[in-house]
């Protein structure tokens, strides 16, 4: 039989309320040594909280719904990992629903989760233009994390895309590149708009004129990067560096450069964005900006739990009242410098063609 909270408190030699505060990470002061002793005993004795009894007392189910745009996204698993790790610290459980990018399925998922009395919802890479109105009616906290399309609402966690673009352009300028081409994603995508803005702002800060001739749009795929780089190579004054708004387009750009008999980065440097797994085994390995997916997941989980605590402390006030004071949380990425921009890191023999790899890697995501 599992040990009860009362039994744990008795073994630890503390009151039930002290044991509860130590286990629940309460804001009320608990001596650090006492907390550590209670947590150690709980682990040794196999204590598990009675969530049903706890829920009856607090009017919570200790369950958060996660609605995913697509479980096949390269970013969602890492975001979910961050969410679940943070929720686990506070004895919260999650229900995950995959919508396969179908707005109707996403709408039904909201109703399904509310019918199960979840405490809040986190939308991962949602396409919904606005939060479902039933969430406000039911007084359910909700958070958007890594929203792909449209505006970024207050209750959201996203990448600081401008910061990431600035890191790339500053890096290339430091390597004495002043004609830096940009392959952007589709218009209307948050990532496209913000990465272009960061690119332009950094050029302006260094008094480098913006040249629309070396800015093209792609559909996030390898072939789009290849075609864009081919156009750049045909210019009378070709760029000395290419910044692609995601890793797949950056790979396509590298393949086009190499197929033209040129070297990366000897003739043209290339930098991507996302730091997918393929970036580290491409040849040359790809300089890119790491997407802070795990950190975004943790921040989203922390935000939704804070909203629950704020609503409870205010006597059940609408979570929307709390949201109105919150600006979007922007998590900065990290520049990972590899061989495609820095020739001092090179330790490989450059291949001539990557047509088969192009076919295998042509998946469209930012």
Folded structure, characterized:
The chain is α/β, with parallel strands linked by helices and 366 residues long. It folds into three domains: 5-49, 434 Repressor (Amino-terminal Domain) (Orthogonal Bundle); 61-140 and 293-331, Response regulator (Rossmann fold, 3-Layer(aba) Sandwich), CATH 3.40.50.2300; 161-291 and 334-361, Rossmann fold, CATH 3.40.50.2300. The chain contains 15 helices and twelve strands. It has helices at 5-12, 16-23, 32-45, 51-58, 76-89, 103-115, 133-137, 161-174, 190-205, 222-233, 247-259, 278-281, 293-313, 319-323, 355-361; strands at 63-68, 93-98, 120-124, 142-145, 156-159, 180-184, 215-217, 241-244, 269-271, 288-290, 329-331, 334-336. Strand 6, helix 9 (190-205) and strand 7 (215-217) form a beta-alpha-beta unit. Helix 1 packs across helix 3 (32-45). The longest helix is centred in the last third of the chain and has 21 residues, at 293-313. It is elongated and about 80 Å long. Mean pLDDT is 85; it is low at 358-364.
